[in-house]
Amino acid sequence: MGAGVQIRDARRAELVAGLELLRSSLRFGARDAIPPWLAFATTEAGGLALAAFADRELIGFSYALPALDRAGPHLLSCGLAVAPAWRSRGVGRRLKLAQRDRALAAGLDRIRWTADPLTAPALRLYLTGLGARLVRYRADLFDGLRPAASDDVEIEWALAGGAPVAPARDAVEIPADPLCRSPAWRRAVRRDMSALLARGLVGIGVEATGDRRFVRFGEPAR
Question: In the prediction, which pLDDT does 133 show?
């Protein structure tokens, strides 16, 4: 799984290649793409741009910024991408683990990011693979900022492990096809996830049953 892959800080021209991989993977238009000059400036000021290489080929990229909210300082992850030929080979997981190690070294104990609630492979990595939690549903988060309407969920990764979660029977079905953008799926997932989150549950994993995918929810310990 990702044998022979090296992960290190992306430098100058590698930032350009990494951000292009991110733009392509997330299907960003020109208006959505992160400018390389901005990524460079923010890494100079405490941001983190990591690249995965197989020999000299850049095959994965992640970008994050130091951030602050009511709970304190943390790392805000702004994108993760892996080249198509290298997906499902552990590269994305290794990038996130490297990001975790760097956050801990900087004295940070949380990483936060947003994700598409209809994309099962990404949610499986984040929730099942890393042990992060789906903690909030953000309907139309980028409305007016991106050309296509979409919803996002907030993911929070407590790097020290966080509070234990009691598994629940509650689950929300999401499409098995990661490219699905059906409005009907979007409405159903928005309704069902929002209802469970309103009850104080959090998303804890993705399960497969045949050709169906489900986000499983649980109740954090009080």
Answer: 96
